[in-house]
Amino acid sequence: MYPLVPRLLPTFLVLVLAAPLAVQAQVVGQAEGIEPDKSQLQLEEALLARIWWNQASKIQTLGLSQTQRDAMNEAFRPFIRNYNERHQQIQQERKAFSSAVYESDMDEAEALHQSVVNYQSEFISKQIVVMMDIAKLMTEEQLALLGEQFPALFSRAWIRPFRPGARDARQGLGH
Predict the structure, then answer these.
(1) pTM assigned to the model
(2) What digits encode the pLDDT tens for the residues 21-41?
(3) Which of 36, 49, 137, 171 is spaced 20 to 30 Å from 153 by Cα?
């Protein structure tokens, strides 16, 4: 039939199932240097209020200062904006991939497959970089305590998928 389809579909299905069904952090992506509008900033603030370093239990347990938390928020903002922009793009590419497969345009499907793979790789890389940036804002003692009290925190995504009908659509950043 189509020799490329058996190779592409498993990868595509893994990416579709593993990726968010909708963007949790609904801030529209902004080009660098352009400030988001007031409503986007308000949503961003609400999302950052839920991230792990702004939760009372972690603030107290780790002894995080306001200065540290402000710096963490600023380090994380570009990641949120990039996530939203790229997530919207990848959803469009997934739809185009499906159309290409259904229309038997395997050259286009292969190109879109590569684009999806590149996005996933880029996202993971940026996620790890921002995690390291956040870790650099903490003391050695805080990091040791974090590893002891919350060992899985750096091994999972801090932006989690939102599924329609979830209890609270705004609960997506960290734990």
Answers:
(1) 0.64
(2) 333 333 333 344 556 677 778
(3) 36
